Amino acid sequence: MMPSFHSADRPTHRRVMVVGLLFCAAFVTISFWLRQQPEGGRVLVKADRLVRTAGEARKAN
């Protein structure tokens, strides 16, 4: 039988999982913080229009 990661002792397994989770959380946090912000307010205008027109009947073609 080949040795595997799951046959390791429980503290080692838990430590590796925690370190992996921390690296993943750090990657997500850093990539979110470094992403380019929108240049203009076009997204905000579209969102505002969607909110203002919510619940109104749509025009037929």
Give the structure's gist in a few sentences.
This protein is mostly helical. The protein has helices at residues 10-34, 42-52.
Description:
The protein has 61 residues and is mostly helical. The protein has a domain at 10-34. The protein has helices at residues 10-34, 42-52. The chain starts with 9 loop residues before the first helix and ends in a 9-residue tail after the last helix.
Helix content: 55-70%
Order of helices and strands: HH
Task: Please count the helical segments.
Answer: 2
Please mark out the parts with pLDDT under 50 across 5 or more consecutive residues, or reply none: none
User: How far is the N terminus from the C terminus?
Assistant: 68 Å
Largest sheet, in brief, is:
none
Oligomer type: single chain
